[in-house]
Write a structure and sequence with these properties.
It is a single chain. The protein has 18 helices and five strands. Helix 12 (362-392) runs parallel beside helix 16 (505-538). The strands form two sheets. A three-stranded mixed sheet has the order 1-2-3, covered by helices on one side. It has a two-stranded antiparallel ribbon with strand order 4-5. A hairpin with a 2-residue loop joins strand 4 (96-97) and strand 5 (100-101). It is mainly alpha-helical and 638 residues long. The protein is globular, with a radius of gyration of 33 Å.
């Protein structure tokens, strides 16, 4: 052995270690080596230089590796390792449970519970708001388009302004409580105070006089005044979905989780949301059926409403408690790593520039058509379906019971479709996945409107099945809503985001900004505006049904044409992107191969000189797994 180790109280590296002249098989450590990274005695394993962050150029093609200490030390191996160019290092052992770090679970589990409670409440509120405004005396489904445009939209804008001002003067914790606690207080007060007093606080006589003066076409606008407390509940329930879910929860989750944690667990939050949908649907069903066990003269819907609002308040307090616990015991724990994420400025385009950009690019125009068409189509069918639902189930308890079953079925269908969505994308590609949602809307929409318009000839056949044309239309409309929403969450949304990927950076940024500014609001309000025009022109939603069916057909066909056109463009761009990636990979591999061939002439001495001159110890850093040598003890040059 040419290299002589000088003992100085502790074993140390030689000043200029050299390569051995005898065969590697004669080394003491050779018998421990294997193709897989098997642990050595005492729970050790050999690590390549790239695994601890040493650049490839410093390896020199030599057998320079490190030991990871696991259970105990082997001093003889240290001596041999020092002579052979190995460095013993230690890594901190992280506590894990089921393969996940405990520090991560302390954040993810409370977040998952918060999301479950928020979505559980939202399903109850969403089903209840429709029951209140649709089945109320003097109201119908015709109120919904006017309510969304003239009440919901202004209050959403007002909340945005108020939230922005509060965010400038309050801490994040204070802002969270300031926003969510009024929601909880309102829903509790509505169930126990406002609804029991609705006969006293609603201006029924004034609404009757206005309706007589304006005519039946203005039933929807007048109903907003007639049942103003129910409309306020409707708007607060809508805001719970946008404010508490999107702003509070996802803002908090993005604030405390790392990118790696988000990749692992955000998809599980989506599955958990559908589980909440299933359980909350069963809860709505249970409370809606309480009326059957009540005596005569008892307002069954008032009893059901008190029970459901009590659960909403309890779950709201649970959300606040979980938020407090995470801030107190997780984020303030000095032993946990801090997440410091710079806020990215979202590009904003003025309305004029957004419209100009949308018209200038065929690809972006087609993508915008998809977004607008979905918003209008789902709105046209949903409101018409709810009007038929009231005709079939005029009682609030019956209506609510059906909506409980509807929410449960929606949760199950979406859960299954989210599991199938990835397989559909991988097997059939973007085009097929993107056209599933409009196809489902087209088929179920045609069936729904056909039963409404031409249901009478089918009466004998449907009677044999125990149904009337109205009940059949309600079931087909429910299927339309269930399958279109599940396809939207599992396929439409992923396809929409995937469509941005092959675009160049400028088009990607400006296109997304333009669609956010123009298309999202247009899709949400477009259907409501069309229905308002139809109702005011033809007198009622029922008289407008044939025209709404024709408009739906035109919009869905335009949606399918845009999806087909976008698929052709997407395929070409995706192919070009893959070709560019292949060329870049080949170039990098060639440069890396040349670099390795040049560095292979360096010996252990030069490597020691480079590392020693730095005067600092090597630190383990995460690297790409594809760059870690598979054998663990093989030279990097191989």
């Amino acid at each position: 052995m040419e290299a002589v180790i000088q003992p100085k109280g502790v074993l140390s590296l030689p000043s200029n270690p050299r390569a051995r002249d005898f065969f590697p098989s004669e080394r003491l450590t050779f018998r421990h080596r294997a193709k897989t990274n098997k642990p050595l005695g005492g729970g050790r394993s050999l690590l390549s230089l790239r695994e601890i962050g040493v650049p490839r150029g410093l390896s020199g093609g030599s057998n320079f590796h490190v030991f990871r200490n696991r259970e105990r030390s082997l001093h003889v191996c240290k001596a041999e390792a020092a002579a052979d160019g190995y460095i013993p290092i230690s890594d901190t052992k992280k506590h894990t449970l089921l393969g996940v770090e405990v520090s991560t679970l302390r954040k993810v589990i409370p977040l998952g519970l918060m999301f479950f409670c928020i979505l559980f409440n939202y399903t109850i509120l969403r089903d209840t708001k429709d029951v209140l405004v649709v089945t109320a005396p003097g109201s119908s489904a015709e109120i919904i388009p006017f309510l969304k445009t003239w009440v919901n939209l202004p209050m959403a804008i007002g909340f945005t302004v108020l939230y922005s001002k509060l965010a400038n003067v309050l801490s994040k914790e204070a802002l969270f409580y300031t926003v969510i606690l009024p929601f909880i207080a309102f829903f509790g007060a509505f169930g126990f105070i406002l609804y029991p007093l609705n006969n006293l606080i609603h201006p029924t006589a004034l609404a009757d006089r206005l309706l007589a003066a304006l005519g039946p076409s203005f039933l929807g606008p007048v109903a907003i005044l007639r049942i103003w407390s129910f409309c306020l509940f409707y708007v607060m329930a809508e805001l719970w979905g946008s404010v508490v879910v999107s702003v509070l929860f996802w803002g908090f989750a993005n604030q405390i989780t790392t990118v790696d944690e988000a990749k692992k667990f955000y998809s599980l939050f989506g599955l958990g949301a559908n589980v909440a949908l299933i359980f909350s649907g069963r809860t709505v069903k249970y409370f809606s059926n309480l009326r059957k066990n009540l005596g005569p003269g008892v307002d069954g819907w008032a009893v059901s409403l008190k029970g459901m609002m009590s659960i909403v308040v309890i779950f709201g307090l649970v959300i606040c408690s979980l938020y407090w616990w995470v801030n107190t015991y997780v984020l303030n724990d000095p032993s946990l790593p801090k997440v410091n994420r710079k806020k990215k400025e979202k590009p904003k385009l003025p309305l004029k520039e957004s419209l100009k950009f949308l018209l200038s690019s065929r690809y972006v125009r087609d993508l915008a058509t998809l977004v607008v068409a979905y918003g209008i189509s789902i709105n046209l069918v949903e409101v018409t379906w709810k009007s038929k639902l009231k005709a079939q189930f005029p009682s609030p308890n019956e209506y609510s019971s059906f909506m409980g079953d509807f929410s449960t079925c929606t949760g199950i269908a979406t859960f299954v479709m989210m599991l199938l969505g990835r397989w559909i994308l991988e097997k059939y590609g973007w085009g097929v996945a993107a056209m599933i949602t409009p196809t489902v809307l087209l088929l179920t929409g045609v069936g729904f409107f056909s039963l409404i318009l031409f249901g009478q000839p089918l009466t004998p056949m449907l009677a044999g099945l125990g149904m009337t044309p109205l009940l059949a239309a309600v079931y087909v409309g429910a299927m339309q809503n269930i399958f279109s929403k599940s396809a939207k969450y599992s396929l439409f949304d992923p396809c929409k985001e995937m469509a941005y990927i092959p675009l160049d950076e400028d088009t990607k940024v400006k296109g997304k900004a333009a669609i956010d500014v123009v298309c999202n609001p247009l899709g949400k309000s477009g259907g409501a505006l069309i229905q308002q025009v139809m109702i005011l022109s033809f007198g009622s939603l029922a008289n407008s049904t044939p025209y709404l069916g024709g408009i739906l057909l035109v919009i869905v066909l335009a949606w399918l044409a845009a999806a087909r056109s976008l698929d052709a463009q997407f395929t070409v761009l995706e192919k070009k992107e893959k070709e560019v990636e292949t060329e870049e990979f080949a170039t990098e591999a060639l440069i890396e191969s040349s670099s390795n061939g040049t560095n292979g002439s360096l010996g252990n001495g030069s490597l020691h000189e480079k590392t020693a001159s730095n005067g600092s110890a090597l630190k383990a850093t995460p690297t790409d797994e594809s760059e870690i040598s598979t054998g663990g003890s093989l030279p990097l040059s191989q």
